[in-house]
Predict the 3D structure of the following.
Amino acid sequence: MALILPSIALAQTQSQLLTPPDSLPVPEQGEVSCVAEVCESGQLFEATAAQPIRLFKKQAIQKLTVSGGWLEAISSDDLSSSFLETSIGLGVPLGSFDNILGVTPSFRVDFVDAAPQLDVPAELFETGVSFFYRKPIKKRLSAMAIVRPSVRSDFKTSEKAFRLFGLGLLNWECRPETLSLSFGAVALGRADLPLLPAVGLTWTPEPTKRLELRFPASRFAYRIARNGVQNETWVYMNAELGGNTWAVTRANGQADELSLRDIRFLFGVDHVVDGGGGWFAEFGYAFNRRIEYESTDVDVSLSDGVLLQAGWRY
């Protein structure tokens, strides 16, 4: 089954959601008023237009997200699926509001429509908590870590249901606000993929364009509309690895580990409002779809599939 891999900034970092170019926070209303007293109207408009959309709220609850999707296999005697996912993002101050730990509990269910010979459960679940922390080291150097303990299973077996996703990166901003490089390692918590090196590049040649080359998801985004500091709209193309591993009970009663994997290309639109809310919608194509059980160590090829997914966030 070509299921959606949780955002590594996923992320799901998370999701998988579009992040506009990194920049400074939007000024408070009082700051804008002060600028208005000393600037001509045209200068004020230019200054406001240059400010970024804030991606965070000044409160403990940072984000509420609801998303869903559907994947239809090209072959009728194959495997199709749909999913629903919800999460809540929290910001926990560690001594001060300049030192924040991101905490995101989430729950997801995948509904599977598979041919009987594939021996795949009708429902697969994942529930867990993601912890995100970023710490500046020097002016252009920072460290970032994401840890996600979770339970992935059909809720009928607990054997090997616990999974741990981990990502550690060093980020070097070699050209301020334009080019940054990242180096580290990622453990996806999957039976079919080992610990992998994580090397990435983020290039923002101008505020309307952003290229992210990294594993397991890369993206090119282009901003098509902007309404001051209130909202903006982006279109994007993604190339990413899909799938996951779950603990399941086979038809014969045996406990096993089910891994599903695919490669996908996505085209989408993301509307971002001040504070990080908004919505997104995307469609795409999944290929090289495979299914694997650990007990048999045999890969089964699946047909390609088309997919559609969307989400809303507060």
Q: What stands out?
A: The helical segments are 29-38, 41-50. Confidence is low (pLDDT under 50) at residues 1-48. The first helix runs from residue 29 to 38.
